Amino acid sequence: MRVLFAAFEIYPYVKTGGLGDVAAALPPALKEQGVDVRFFLPGVPELLEVLGDRETVVEFPVYFGAKARILKGTLPTGLIAYILDAPDFYHRKGLYVDAQGLDWPDNHLRFAAFCRAAADLQDFVSWKPDIIHGNDWHCGLIPAYLLTKSAPQPASVLTIHNIAYQGLFPTHVQHQIGLPAFLYHMEGAEFYGKVGYLKAGLAFADRITTVSPTYAREIQQGEQGCGLDGFLRTRSARICGILNGIDTDIWNPESDQDIERNYDAQNLEKREANKTALLKLFNIPSQKDKPLFAVVSRLNLQKGFDLLLDALPALLDQGANFILLGSGDRDLEEGFIALADDYPGQVGIKIGYDEALSHKIQAGADAIVMPSRSEPCGLVQMYAMRYGALPLVRNTGGLADTVEDGVIGFVFEEEDAEELSKAMMRAMATYKNKKLWREMQKEAMRQSFTWNDSARRYKELYEELTGKEEEDEDRLSRLA
Ligand code: ADP
Ligand code: GLC
User: Fold this and answer.
1) pLDDT score at 152
2) Which of 12, 126, 253, 457 is deepest in the core (most CB within 10 A)?
3) Distance from Cα 417 to the centre of ligand 1, integer Å
4) CA 297 – ligand 1 centroid, Å
């Protein structure tokens, strides 16, 4: 079984969120299941630097307006990667957006080129994939481009990590990216008069997966589908949710080099040193009896941080401490900075991205707050549980699938600051009961979120797809 795994992010070289973590961890887990998996990745400088045994597969003098070549090489993990090296497209500070936070004006070309090259790779190499597994809208055009080629083609899988990001571009773009008319219509790549890269993937992929079973249902049911729910319902039989795992080597409190003191569930008292060090880092006087709530996240409305800003003052007035590491929407960043000014010595805010600090927070905080309006899976709550920080989350998507209220964390229902506030007060009351809190920590640390089970599920899905003749007929009839 040969699988080309295409992703636009991969930790630790290119990462803006959980997609990078998943792309780094799932393919090695698939390899362990016996899948012959290779990567397809964008040629960002950080990746090119680590690529070993590099060779050029093919060069294009002009490719979607840029000079490009496909390289083959080995990543430090030992897995083989094909890389689309197009410096004009991918050597930029900012993967998706510029310094002002605006989409790069040529994003339609940057991502179309990536998809076209992934779909065409088989023409240049002897290693022919049975499946091309793409991720998010960045890879949405791969299944469409496969249909422009002559048979037989690999089957395609598209994983949705976040349906709110759809890659929508003006209609005239279809000509620039070579999208033929037979693929550009309501049942295909067209979405309310625009070219929808994710929509193309959802229309033409043989299988659609998403990163938790609950999110798989939610996106077919109204608002959470971000306008695609009706369309997805027509494709329901091809959709499934497979919960992400986490990399338990990188996220391991017993061996984590970024934290003050290593510990495990049997010696949780050692964890205290991490809390003390963390509070010091944020200039908060150490108060062991006060619960420390924390956030590590991209800051936006989808993650519900406006609700948290409303809910926090009441909690802080009760004496809790709060720290945040994150960046994103300016209004939210400013809101949290203002909160720190209002509560000196009680609130610490770090605007930015800092991988090592994120580990320190998981090891030192008492509770990690994720008030998401929508959360396809969420990795941060799983890291939290592994580190004995109790997650406080809204009952949605992967949060609903991983956190059990009162057992390993705290769950609230409605998208509402009042509800969130009540859950935080509940956590505060629980924190006073040291024995109960400790039991919950231990139970949280006992949860298993390894990649093995998920990788097995993906492998089964690939196997279902490899006898794919009937699928081809079905697909052709859909196009007719
Ligand atoms: P999403 O992918 O929606 O951002 P996830 O919970 O799946 O949410 O994954 C977020 C990933 O990004 C985690 O690895 C988390 O630790 C990391 N992360 C988010 N914000 C920051 C930050 N400011 N600094 C360091 N790591 C961060
Ligand atoms: C997305 C989602 C997040 C998920 C991650 C990895 O960024 O927002 O919930 O955990 O992808 O699948």
Assistant:
1) 85
2) 253
3) 22
4) 5
Question: Do 1 and 34 touch, CB atoms closer than 8 A?
Answer: yes
> How far is the C-alpha of 182 from the C-alpha of 147, rounded, in Å?
10
Q: Does the beta carbon of 400 sit less than 6 angstroms from any atom of ligand 2? A: no
For residue 338, give both structure tokens: 């203002």
- How far apart CA 321 and CA 423 sit, in angstroms, is 16
Is residue 268 within 8 A of residue 274, CB to CB? The reply is no
List the one residue out of 331, 328, 319 whose CA is nearest residue 424. 319
**CA–CA separation, 104 vs 108, rounded Å?**
9
The finding on whether 18 has its CB within 6 A of some atom of ligand 1 is: yes
Closest among 313, 314, 277, 274 to 441, alpha carbons compared: 274
| Cα–Cα separations (whole angstroms), residue 104 to 21, 101, 107, 143, 236 | 24, 9, 5, 24, 33
Nearest ligand to the C-alpha atom of residue 211: 2
135-186 pLDDT per residue, tens:
999 999 999 999 999 878 999 999 999 999 999 999 999 999 999 999 999 9
Distance of alpha carbon 292 from alpha carbon 366, whole angstroms: 5
Place of tokens 């050692």: 270
Question: How far apart are alpha carbons 357 and 364 in whole angstroms?
Answer: 10
| Predicted confidence (pLDDT) per residue in 226-266, tens digit | 999 999 999 999 999 999 999 999 999 999 999 999 999 99
Q: Which atom of ligand 1 approaches the CA of 362 most closely?
A: 16
